[in-house]
Amino acid sequence: MARATSLSFLGLFAEPDDAAAAMDALRSSGFEETDLEVLTNCPFPEGAFGEPPPKHHFYVFPLVGGACGLLVGMLLVIGTQLYYPLVTGGKPILSIPPILNILFEGVMLGCIVVSFFGFLFEARLTGVGRIPWDKRISDGYIGVAVLNSQGREAAARRSLLDAGAIDVIGGQGNVVEA
């Protein structure tokens, strides 16, 4: 059981239509989209439960990483060639073709590293502990989690039960109503 607050609830549903009805009922009860989460054991299409499409800014991370990689690559190549000037056969110290190879590698390395950390940031892996969990979700049930029901616990439980929840589980893992 994941760590969840005592103000969170999880409704278990056997059918996707019941879970979608619960999401509509919770929204009409005044809960925000950020307070609701749908948990399934298999992927469903975006918006299958009436949730808005997720907003992400993942495209920014490769751009920032590429710019940082280009800057670091330029400093490394130009700084090394100016700090250790090795003139070979009268050729220029700062030659463009070899610099382009190293700059390309710097840009790619910057994109990969920053994109990896950007993915971890966008995945919101730190939010896992605040969502209640039940083993039956792995068996095919659909969970609708109400994450912040402060002052509206009765409305959250009633909305979940009216939509056809099999069980309503509290944040500490106890079955509140069945």
Topology overview:
Layout: E1 9-13, H1 16-28, E2 36-39, H2 60-83, H3 96-123, E3 142-146, H4 153-162, E4 167-170, E5 175-177
Antiparallel strand pairs: 1-3, 1-4, 2-3, 4-5
Helix pairs in contact: 1-4, 2-3
Can you put this structure into words, describing what you see?
This protein is an alpha+beta fold and 178 residues long. The protein has two domains: 9-53 and 130-177, Alpha-Beta Plaits, CATH 3.30.70; 60-123, no CATH class. It is 42% helix and 12% strand. The protein has four helices and five strands; from the N terminus they run E-H-E-H-H-E-H-E-E. Strand 4 and strand 5 (175-177) form a beta hairpin. The longest helix is centred in the middle third of the chain and has 28 residues, at 96-123. The radius of gyration is 26 Å and the shape is rod-shaped. 24% of the residues are buried.
Shape: rod-shaped
Low-pLDDT parts are none
Secondary-structure element sequence? EHEHHEHEE
- Share of helical residues: 40-55%
CATH architecture of the largest domain: 2-Layer Sandwich
Record keyword descriptors for this entry.
single chain, 178 residues, alpha+beta, Alpha-Beta Plaits, 2 domains, 5-stranded antiparallel β-sheet, 4 helices, 5 strands, 42% helix
